[in-house]
Design goal:
Elements lengths: L1 H19 L4 H22 L3 H15 L2 H24 L4 H23 L5 H24 L9
Helix pairs in contact: 1-2, 1-3, 2-3, 2-4, 2-5, 2-6, 3-4, 4-5, 5-6
Length: 155
């Protein structure tokens, strides 16, 4: 349940942060990498129910933050979540590989949709968002590789 609660809370928190302090978009972009890792851990632990967790986080965001930011977030997350779900459902590779493949495919799409809808075209913001997400999942991949592919997600 810890992964699930952290994932939903992170969606709400980052949308709240973007809504209140949009001028710190570079900071929030770096933080977004954590959400992708949490999403993958929820996918591993709860399977298809990860879609319900994403929905819960986005509904809360829509109700409690700027609806425009929440809408951009839900559209970007929905598309990237479908990519993530497809990778986890179709691919039979080890978990660490699915995490990285999923991120490599969904991160550029998520970044483009979210910042495009918010009319943020600063290349440094896009680069920070993209890099933080891929660096985060790469760190998890390396950790799992060092552990022989094992990672406990039961919490």
């Amino acid at each position: 349940m810890l992964w699930l609660a952290a994932y939903i809370a992170s969606i709400l928190a980052i949308n709240f942060a973007f809504s209140l302090f949009p001028h710190l978009d570079l900071v929030w972009s770096c933080w977004a990498g954590l959400i992708f890792i949490l999403r993958d851990m929820v996918q591993v632990r709860f399977g298809h129910w990860s879609l319900a967790a994403m929905l819960a986080g986005t509904v809360l965001s829509y109700l409690l933050t700027d609806p425009f930011v929440a809408t951009a977030s839900v559209v970007a997350f929905a598309v990237s979540e479908m990519i993530d779900w497809a990778v986890f459902t179709v691919t039979r590779r080890p978990l660490r590989d699915r995490l990285w493949i999923s991120a490599a495919l969904s991160v550029p799409v998520d970044t483009a949709i979210f910042f495009g809808m918010l009319d943020v075209w600063d290349p440094s913001v896009w680069a920070a968002s993209f890099a933080s997400k891929l660096l985060g999942v790469s760190a998890v991949w390396l950790l799992m590789r060092a552990r022989g592919g094992r990672m406990t997600v039961a919490a």
